[in-house]
Specification:
There is one protein chain. The protein is mainly alpha-helical and 432 residues long. It contains 19 helices and four strands. The strands form two sheets. A two-stranded antiparallel sheet has the order 1-4. Strand 2 (153-156) and strand 3 form a beta hairpin. Helix 2 (31-40) runs parallel beside helix 4 and helix 3 (46-68) runs antiparallel to helix 14 (318-327). The longest helix has 26 residues, at 241-266. The chain is globular and about 65 Å long.
Length: 432
């Protein structure tokens, strides 16, 4: 079995791949409890979500290791899980079963496109600055959600939002968690997020915030309450088409962005050929994982940027991913610990992930004085948190960009793919 990974060809060993897999596991282990909290806010039972998150991470990561032979781990994507809960279920008042149907349909389209040239056509049709704006906008969106859930931002009838009561012990605990997560990440501590969560939880328990677990280990809860509960027919409406497209394109952006960054460090996906088999197979695994995730009851599954930590440790093949997936089996038996974590030990992670995604804004070229770019980027970034919708921000930005290009007669900057996305974006507001 080991031979299929071509370790010698990639100048690596089983020991190196094992340590790389362990490193990736430690850096992304946080997703299991964090996703449990986020999706439980949408009404899904937390125990079942924790089990389903662990399962899809195990299956998707190991599958990708064998399928593409790349050191890329996969799990439920941050950003789209927040949009699933707070944008679709709580914001649009959709049943979570319908939201799972949307995830399934977007994943199914992604699977189909992964085996065609259409995927590359769509990706090359969208200006790089707009792609980066979408990432930054999602970062602002999930950071806003994290701050709101922590109680740092609260509702205000006069000003819409205001600063929360900073003397509240729960909020102070969240601020501590945020500081720890930022500090550990800044100093490149392996497992920064999970260590910050555990320390914050210990502090919370010692001050009577939440109940400390009586046992750290227990049997996983059944996923029966969420398994195959998706409602595809309710998702198959014209009004929800823009949402499906948003999930699809965001997943594609997220995946390609992650693979580009991680691939540069591992010398993967660097082929000058248009057809890079490793890239294609990783995208296929990512798409298949999203469909599988919707069936077991979780939101969009995607490639994790934390895979870079394993690459830095020397991981170069799919064996790293296989080891990572195997380590995640441990999380199936940590439910008592995960369920006892105070919420404000979890939500700071959303803020930090949001900050990291927001840094993409620094790569956008604002020096061109092109109002088409600056105005569309601004609307994408500002509309996502203010309207509590990735779809609204995405749509507003693309409509303004295309409209201004048409008004200025800069037709060379437009293409069929961009116009198609703009027309779909118009449906967001027409069908609102």
């Amino acid at each position: 079995m080991i031979k299929r990974f071509n370790l010698k060809e990639h100048n690596t060993t089983v020991k190196t791949e094992f340590l790389a897999g362990l490193t990736t596991f430690l850096t992304m282990m946080y997703i299991v409890p964090v996703n449990g909290f986020i999706l439980s806010d949408a009404g899904l039972p937390m125990g079942a979500v924790v089990t389903a998150t662990a399962l899809i991470t195990i299956l998707a990561t190991i599958f990708n290791g064998f399928w593409s032979n790349t050191p890329i781990a996969m799990s439920v994507g941050m950003g789209l899980n927040a949009y699933f809960s707070y944008g679709l279920v709580l914001g649009m008042q959709l049943p979570w079963q319908t939201a799972l149907g949307i995830v399934f349909l977007s994943g199914l389209i992604f699977v189909i496109l992964s085996f065609t040239k259409f995927r590359i056509w769509i990706m090359t049709s969208i200006p790089m600055d707009l792609r980066r704006a979408v990432s930054a906008g999602i970062g602002a969106f999930i950071a806003f959600i994290g701050l709101k859930q922590m109680g740092i931002i609260v509702e205000n009838k006069a000003t819409l939002v205001a600063l929360g009561d900073l003397s509240n012990p729960n909020i102070l605990l969240g601020i501590l968690g945020l500081f720890l997560a930022l500090a550990f990440y800044n100093f490149k501590v392996k497992g920064a997020f999970i260590i910050a969560i555990l320390i914050t939880s210990l502090v919370g328990w010692s001050f009577g915030i939440g109940d400390a677990p009586t046992s750290l280990i227990g049997f996983p809860e059944s996923i029966a309450p969420i398994y195959m509960q998706l409602d595809i027919m309710s998702a198959l409406t014209l009004a929800l088409l823009p949402v499906i497209i948003t999930f699809l394109i965001t997943d594609m952006f997220d995946t390609l962005g992650t693979l580009t960054g991680v691939g540069t460090r591992a010398n993967l996906f660097q082929s000058e050929k248009k057809e890079d088999k490793a890239l294609e197979k990783t995208l296929e695994a990512d798409a298949i994982a999203t469909v599988a995730g919707s069936l077991v009851g979780v939101s969009t599954t995607t490639s994790f940027v934390e895979s870079a930590s394993g690459v830095e440790e020397g991981g170069r093949t799919g064996l790293t991913a296989v080891f990572t997936g195997m380590f995640f089996i441990l999380t199936l038996f940590l439910l008592p610990l995960f369920k006892s974590i105070p919420p404000n030990a979890i939500y700071p992670v959303l803020v930090v992930v949001g900050i990291l995604m927001f840094t993409e804004l620094g790569n956008i070229n604002f020096k061109t004085n092109d109002l088409s770019i600056t105005s569309s980027v601004f609307l994408i970034v500002i509309m996502m948190p203010l309207t509590y919708s990735i779809t609204n921000g995405f749509a507003a930005g693309f409509i303004v960009y295309t409209s201004l290009k048409l008004l200025k007669g800069e037709f060379k900057d437009l293409n069929l793919g961009l116009i198609t996305i703009t027309l779909i974006s118009l449906l967001v507001f027409i069908l609102h």
